Fold these 2 entries.
Entry 1:
Amino acid sequence: MTPGAAPSPSPGSLADPLSPVIAVDCNGADLGPAEVAAGAVLAAEQGARVLLFGPAAQLGELPDTIEVVDAPVSIAKAQDPVSAARTTPQASIVLAARAVGEGRAQALVCAGATGAALAAGTFNIKRARGIYRPALAIPLPVPHHPVTLLDVGANADCRREHIVQFAFMGAALASTVLDVQRPRVGLLSNGEESQRGSALVLEAHAALAEQAVDGIDVFEFVGNVEGGDVMSGAADVIVTDGFTGNIALKLMESVSQTMLGAVREAAMSSTRAKLGGALLRPALRGFRDEIDPEASGGAYLLGLRRLGVVPHGRFTRAGFAQAILRAERGARADIVGRTHQALEQAGALKRSPVSAAGASLPSTG
Amino acid sequence: MTPGAAPSPSPGSLADPLSPVIAVDCNGADLGPAEVAAGAVLAAEQGARVLLFGPAAQLGELPDTIEVVDAPVSIAKAQDPVSAARTTPQASIVLAARAVGEGRAQALVCAGATGAALAAGTFNIKRARGIYRPALAIPLPVPHHPVTLLDVGANADCRREHIVQFAFMGAALASTVLDVQRPRVGLLSNGEESQRGSALVLEAHAALAEQAVDGIDVFEFVGNVEGGDVMSGAADVIVTDGFTGNIALKLMESVSQTMLGAVREAAMSSTRAKLGGALLRPALRGFRDEIDPEASGGAYLLGLRRLGVVPHGRFTRAGFAQAILRAERGARADIVGRTHQALEQAGALKRSPVSAAGASLPSTG
């Protein structure tokens, strides 16, 4: 953990001067940059050290403990985020990622723009040593037991060794940031039996099962899990390729929204139903709190030299504060170092190609 | 349409003696064989000609119009349905499929056991000429607009040409059995843009777009659809590989069950909530009817020489009757012949490999 050239907190701040600094991009939130800044204030009140990037004039009144870098340019809505992240060095998300890459902050939080965060993070924070591919992980708001799914879209086509690394990356996230001890990791498939699945899943299953025989202690491999097991809590972490994971995530979101919408619509359809809905509402509140996506901070960008968190653009300040606090927790627990160590022990790090002269070449993933 | 050696209906039956005969396997239903037989009675009352296979002693009182073949052996719960279908010629599902293969019936209905139906159908009805792979299609109970998803599990690994055929097969199902005129076909992907997707999706997209340029008139290709579009009615038919489709289907089922379960649980949690639930229930009934999976008959087995329908094992007699009536509708409309014709016009039929001497070799899929 290198605190780097982080700004010192003002006297009287709750923040520990040695605690990690979180670089926060304020652009990309549906409710505007001030909502993200308000989330940063909430997080700072709980001791987080925050370095804000965004349109300073729009961020509202902020305490002295929060340093602001005026960065009004946003690429959150860019059609082609990869190209925008390359060609817009003054974009707030690029500046925030660069602050992390240069050691002025120890984790990145940027609202809304997953594609831009992935691109800006990969270009400026860089892949961690020995990692094939960064991945996006999302703690699904499953009642009673959060389940982390990855990859949810960074890599449409994956190889076996990518899936194996996702298992370690997801397990490290679950144990450091999401309070799950020795997470149970499942492999998403079209059947529970080990011989069921696509060619990729069969290979990944064999590789993960072999890790289990070798006695990995950072997670338990519970084998294949089906689509129907995602909600059942059969696993704490579910690994899959980014194509399947992205479809699964968006499908879950739209099915649950459709169902809640239908209940809401039914509860507006007659006087009798309105009364019923009003009486039922308090009882449903507990369930809605349990499936509140803001509670777990959003999506996590794993596999870079520092942790990234991408809260959903529609989050409120409470969700942005969660994202910042969880980013800090991940940085404090050295999630990146832990992942590296576990992968190294498992012999699952990517080896850099070695030239004839023995020099390391840059790896290209 | 060859009525074959179908049994003549008794005098006074509503059934047209030239109408297709539906072979129905009664084993595999959660409520037992008598529930399937009761569904057959309902279908017969609407004019269907049914040939029942199952434990005759357990089927209850049946009208003379329904012919029964005593077939007490069930492989519906077999661990390995492929091997069971091969080695159990006396199984009711095998006998029913053989009746279809031999022309004594023109479509197959078997409850519950998708794997066994796929195996028994493939062995005994055989793949239709020019089809690479049979597929399982399921009309999803989406409110306001049923959406047919395929493949939902017959083929874990697919190639481009399989996906293209699925589009034609699904479109033929939608237009003949599900009352959709010129169905809109979408390709499930992790992004709407044509350049988003796995390598397979990029290839399949290009092939389907090319078909569209050539002016196919049996469906409209609407491009990629995301997981979030499945519920939105952006497409009437959504094609994907059987790995992704199976995960998507089971995920949708479990998310909607979890949501309904949570509402039910909330509505039992206090006296006030119970009253609310009771008042809201009638308004929710319309929604529940709309998402009733029994209404569309179950899963459809496409790509064989005859249509197969696999109603869910938990269906009641109403669902089994639907399955039989829709199987009949597909047979009457010659869904298999229509699919063949459309694939032929599109140049998308599988060509039999030709030996040096010009003789056709059996194709092996």
Entry 2:
Amino acid sequence: MTDARSPARLASPGDTATLARMLVDFNAEYDEETPSLEVLESRLGTLLRTDRFWAALAGDPPVAFATVTERDSPYYEGRVGYLEDLYVRPELRGQGIGGDIMRLLLDEARRRALGLVEIGVDEPDVDAMRFYESHGFIHRDPETGDRAFHIYQEF
Amino acid sequence: MTDARSPARLASPGDTATLARMLVDFNAEYDEETPSLEVLESRLGTLLRTDRFWAALAGDPPVAFATVTERDSPYYEGRVGYLEDLYVRPELRGQGIGGDIMRLLLDEARRRALGLVEIGVDEPDVDAMRFYESHGFIHRDPETGDRAFHIYQEF
């Protein structure tokens, strides 16, 4: 039996292969290239054993996941988390599974005393933006009303 | 004698007080709150002794600075750098000092084998966006043309 509404839980190193598989599927849905499954398994296996990377899963077997990586900042006593990915299998969307994962993430962020959690959201992805805003994320600076863009350079 | 065009260099823990002072001045210019000078000195002194935080300075005495913090990512073999701040004293802008610092940052990012460097840029700050783009940063996804927003939640 599968149970898509099994409660969200934090991932352990034993979830490495499952996470790698979902990460590949997630990027395939958006036509984004990823490292190979083998490389992802190796990296995720290493990262899940550090205290600067964590992940959440939902469903049994898992049908949704999220990953958070942490950096330091002079602006906060705690670390800053970056929500790298949040994914629910397409056929299971609209049932609150993403919300379950997000609540777990925010609880865990508080438990870890993070100062801030950041996300990069593609401009056309208005559903994602609405979802994140409904969970307390801020799109515009509360004082200036300005939005900020996420820009990057690969090496 | 002061020399604003003294070559850009990486900061050492001995630069902690100078960096903290400039970080306060930078945020004051944009009416952003910061932790106190004492708290910043303590945090920067700690962070500059780690291998996940680094900074660059230019001028003698320094008149410009930048800070980079690093996180892990399953998408890259190397770490991901986040350019937290880049600042040139207002009366010395337009002389290429920011460009000197940026070239040093990108050289150091390559030396550290970072996979990616990210920046958050406020939407109205078109001069900053032009500057970053001139140094190779990408505002729109090369395949989709989409921009991405940087959103956040503080705790």
